[in-house]
Each structure stands twice: as C-alpha cells, then as structure tokens.
Design goal:
The structure holds 2 protein chains of 2 kinds. By secondary structure, chain A is an all-alpha fold. Chain A has 11 helices and no strands. In chain A, helix 2 runs antiparallel to helix 3, helix 2 packs parallel to helix 6 and helix 6 packs antiparallel against helix 7. The two termini of chain A are about 30 Å apart. Chain A has one domain. In chain A, about 35% of the residues are buried. Chain B has 2 domains: about 210 residues, 3-Layer(aba) Sandwich (Rossmann fold), CATH 3.40.50.300; about 70 residues, Alpha-Beta Plaits (2-Layer Sandwich). Chain B is built from 11 helices and 14 strands. The longest helix of chain B is centred in the middle third of the chain and has 14 residues. Chain B is elongated, with a radius of gyration of 25 Å. The model of chain B has no long low-confidence stretch (mean pLDDT about 85). Classes of the chains: A mainly alpha, B alpha/beta. Chains A and B meet through helix 1 and helix 5 of A and helix 2 and helix 3 of B.
C-alpha cells in the first residue's frame, strides 16, 4: 500500500512538472467549453424557433438536452486525451532505465502497476472536476436533474477506467512514447468505430459488434440509466487491461 | 554473503553467462573484471533479481534470488550501468522517492538522505533538477540512491564511469570505506581501480570465469619469472656473458641499440632476489651500474594475457 502510494505520488508530480498535464487540461477544457457553448446556443435557438409556432408547443428540457449532448462530445474528446495520459507511464521508465530501479527495489509488480494506474485515474477525475465548472452555469440559470449529470460522469469515469487500463498495457510494450500514444489511439479508435460497422451487420454479428463498441455502452449512463451490464462491460475491460499489463511486466524480466 | 553456483544465462541461443560460480564473504569488495560484453552486467542483473537465470542458483544473504526475490531486493543496493534517474525530479525528491520504495521508515528518512548526500558529496545540488546536472553529479546521485536504506550488499555496475579524476578518487575511497559493513560487488574495465579498491578479483571473458584471486595473487600467478631491468655502463656482450653466468639467471636480453650504457632485462627463477648478486657482479668488473630495479607484472599484463589466451 505504501509503495503504491509512493509511486502514485511520484507519477502525479511528474505529470505536473512536465508540460503534458497542462497541455491536456487546457485542450480538454477549451474543447469541452467550446462544445458546451455551441450546444447551448443551438438548443436555445431551436427552442426559440419552436416557441414562435405558438404557446401550445411542448416544453423543452433545455438543461437535459445540453448535458446529454455535452457528455456525448466529451466522450469523443476523451478518446484523444486518454492516450496522452498513459503513453509515458511505462514507456518512459523503459527508455530512461528507471524500470531497473523499480524492478530491483522491494516493490511488487502489482504495486508498481497500481500506483501508475491510480495516478492516471486521479488525473482523469481532475479533468472531470475542471469541466464541472462549465456545468455549474446550468445550475445557475436552470434546474437540471443533478442525478442524471452524476450518472453521466459515472459512465465517463468507467469508460476512462477501461481506456486507461488499455493505454497502460500498450505503454509496457514499447520504450517510445510516440509509438505508445499512436497505438493506443488507434486501438481505441477501432473499438469506437466498431459501432458504425455494426449498422451493416445483421443477427448475432450485429449483437456482438454492438456489445464490443466502447462508446455504445455510454448511452444509457448519459440518459441517466445505470445498467449493471454496462458496468460489467467497463469493469471487465479495465481488469483485462490490468491483467495484460501485469503479464507484460512479468514477461519483461524473462525477455530483456 | 553471496553465493553463485553454476549460473548460466542464455540470450537468443547465445550464452551470455556460462556456468559461473563464485562466493563473496561478508565485508569483502569483489571486483568484476572483463571486456565489454563479457557478461558482467548480466551477472549483476541476475543477482539483483532484475532477470532470472536460465540455470544455476544465486543466493544473497541466504535468500535465493529467484525464490525469495523480495527478501533479496530488500537487502541490495544496485547501481545499474545507466543510473536510473527521473530527470524531471529534484535530487532530494528523487532520493526521497527511492527511500520510500525501499521501505525506509518516514521518521528516519530525512536524516538518512542527508547522510547519503554527504557521503557522495551532492549536498550542494539537493534542490536542482536531475536532468540539468552534469554527468559526474548524475553518476553520484546514482551511487547515493544505491546506498539508501543501508543495504547489506551493494552491486555497482561501473560506478566511476563519467567522473573526473578527483571524483573517481572520492568514489573509490567511499567504496573502500563501505567495505566491512557492506559487501560490495563492483564491475569495471578500469584495471587500476580493481587493484586499488578490491580484495578479490574475478576476471570473466565470454561468460566464463577465467581467473579468481587477490589482485597481487593474480599478478604473481601470471609472472612465471622475476624480471629485473638494468642499465650498465660497459661492453654489451661482455656484460651479457657475465650476468648469464650468475646462478639463478635464466636469460639476459639486451634492449635497444648496442651503444653504451646498455639496457638489459634479466629474467631470474621465481621467488629469488638476485639484485644484490647482480649488482656485485657488475661492480666487480669495474663497469658502472646506473640503474637496477625489479619489474612487477601489472594487472594489465595479467588481464590481456588471460583474455587473449584463447
């Protein structure tokens, strides 16, 4: 536990002394702020148009629509950001030779892995907290359903857990950060695009492709529905990533 | 303290380490000598549990490096060939991190780090970022890291590489002072380093142990004969004839031109000291004895001899 904490702490420090943390946070906040703004104006415009048809039209849940589309776009932005958080975790240790320190000190592979994984998760939560600032404006000017928003964040968090574990694994495979980031991004992109392939498929193939799609499982969370099958999907995904990371680190000893 | 038995490591079908066995007693400094690629680093990596051996066993402080890896790692301080430094960290926070993962209790951590920084004289850069330090400082931060948590066994892979002569001297005397409390294995290909710091030397080549002895023992073992250099003012041929007649002299070889004074190398039987007799012989003939000294085989000769034997 203490070892995990020490590694977590070092990893957090190293995020914030390198430009990566600031670049990722800035770009993420800029994009999410920009999308929030454009979604909001689009929704308001359409409700204004609707109200021109007369007082008889259906009332519109503006905050609900805004938050739903906001979570949708955020999940895509995260697709680009998450590989940046994991690219260096093990690749950099391998390049610098510090992996030799980690593996010869009285720290187990599991502790080292968890320290790094938890650091990347912590950073993700920081990103969520920062993006919460834009959300607060909805609470100032309206009465959004806070449970739905929390559900959306919970879904994004699980989605992040899964992708970070995948990125962590890929980071153990190379000593080059660029290679690590590109492969992670490519893999995530494939898992995302599976959804579009599924529209052409039929029967069991369609069910399987739909199930594999990493973003499809988010939809229910964003609507405020918490379904255990989606939780299981993301948790299994994350555990799989961690298992592969563990195995990859173990085999490094035998190969190197 | 360290027992290595029939250790073998195979890389891609090539034997990097081939059936190595040796022992290191508590408090000893063992020098690992060999050309690049001889298997020094591989042996050290096996001892520090960084990689497993293909065959054979290694025990540190009674614990097997494969079975009780964690116990071994608690007792070893290791400086790899490239010091394992996080370049974005400051010297102090780096050492603090290493002390933490090595399990130094938090109450002792600060004083312990200060102590290690003083030993390696890096106190003046404690707040500096490691990536901006010179090579010599980086190397010393690496040594400091290995000393943390007061390990029983220190494994140092080329500890003086990249240091200037003054720092090399400091690190060597540091290592010498560590002996006694610590058991040290250090690898190097700088020969004087071994004769200066180590109690015992293991010379390895192509993954095999080719010699193991004290530095003096090795030098003697290889000599085969006592050699004496002389500079005599007299006719070369006559001098040669007279000296060869002395009992115990095996050969007399003149060096360089036949001018006067003449320089000669005299080889005598092992464990005899003929310097007095040789001097008397020359003086009795009325020649001038300008120089007379024993030549001891250097470790360098031994090394080259052993390595190029095959």
């Amino acid at each position: 536990m203490r070892n995990t904490l020490a590694i977590w702490q070092r990893e957090m420090k190293s995020y914030f002394v390198s430009p990566i943390a600031y670049v990722v946070l800035t770009v993420f906040l800029f994009l999410s702020g920009f999308f929030f703004y454009s979604i909001l104006t689009a929704v308001i415009q359409s409700t204004m148009m609707q109200s021109q048809f007369g007082p008889g039209s259906q009332p519109v849940d503006v905050p609900g629509i805004v938050s739903r589309s906001f979570f949708g776009t955020t999940s895509v932005v995260l697709l680009f950001m998450i590989p940046m958080l994991t690219m260096g975790l093990f690749a950099e240790e391998k390049r610098r030779g510090t992996i030799e320190l980690l593996l010869t000190s009285p720290v187990s592979i599991f502790q080292a892995m968890m320290g790094k994984y938890l650091a990347s998760l912590t950073f993700l939560v920081l990103m969520f907290l920062a993006s919460g600032i834009t959300f607060s404006s909805l609470f100032i000017f309206g009465h959004p359903e806070w449970k739905t928003i929390l559900g959306g964040y919970f879904g994004l968090f699980l989605y992040g857990c899964a992708l970070l574990a995948l990125g962590l694994f890929i980071s153990t495979l190379t000593e080059n950060q660029i290679v690590s980031v590109v492969i992670t991004f490519g893999t995530i992109l494939v898992l995302w695009l599976i959804e579009s392939f599924s529209s052409g498929a039929t029967g069991v193939a369609k069910d399987v492709l739909d199930y594999l799609s990493v973003i499809g499982h988010l939809d229910d969370f964003i609507k405020g529905v918490i379904d255990t099958s989606h939780i299981i999907y993301y948790v299994t995904f994350a555990l799989m990533g961690l298992f592969l990371t563990y195995r990859s680190l173990e085999s490094m000893r035998w190969k190197s | 303290m360290i027992e290595v038995e029939h250790l073998t490591k195979v890389y891609n079908g090539r034997k990097a380490v081939d059936d190595i066995s040796f022992k290191v007693e508590r408090g000893e400094i063992l020098g690992f000598l060999g050309p690049n690629g001889a298997g020094k680093t591989t042996t050290m990596r096996i001892l520090t549990c960084y990689m497993p051996a293909t065959d054979g066993t290694a025990r540190v402080a009674g614990y097997d490096v494969f079975e009780d890896s964690l116990e071994v790692r608690k007792r070893i301080g290791y400086l790899p060939e490239n010091p394992p430094l996080y370049h974005e960290m400051s010297v102090y926070s780096y050492l603090d991190f290493v002390a933490k993962i090595k399990g130094t209790p938090s109450s002792k951590r600060k004083s312990h780090i200060d102590d290690v920084m003083q030993k390696t004289s890096i106190g003046d850069v404690r707040g500096r970022v490691i990536g901006k330090l010179s090579k010599g400082y980086k190397q010393r931060v690496g040594v400091a890291q290995a000393l943390l948590n007061n390990p029983e066994v220190l494994v140092l892979d080329e500890p003086t590489i990249g240091l200037d002569p003054k720092q090399i001297f400091e690190v060597r005397s540091l290592i010498k002072n560590l002996a006694g409390d610590h058991t040290v294995i250090l690898s190097t290909h700088i020969l004087p380093e071994v004769s200066m710091t180590c109690n015992r030397v293991v010379i390895i080549n192509n993954g095999k142990v080719v010699a193991m002895d004290t530095p003096e023992g090795l030098a003697n073992q290889q000599k085969g004969a006592e050699r004496i250099a002389m500079l005599v003012d007299g006719p070369v041929d006559a001098v040669r004839e007279k000296l060869s007649a002395v009992d115990g002299v095996m050969s007399v070889t003149p060096e360089g031109s036949n001018g006067s004074p003449s320089r000669l190398t005299v080889e005598c039987k092992l464990n005899t000291d003929l310097r007095r007799i040789l001097a008397a012989t020359v003086v009795n003939q009325g020649w001038g004895l300008l120089e007379l000294r024993g030549i001891s085989a250097s470790l360098e000769d031994v090394f080259i001899n052993l390595i190029t034997k095959e």
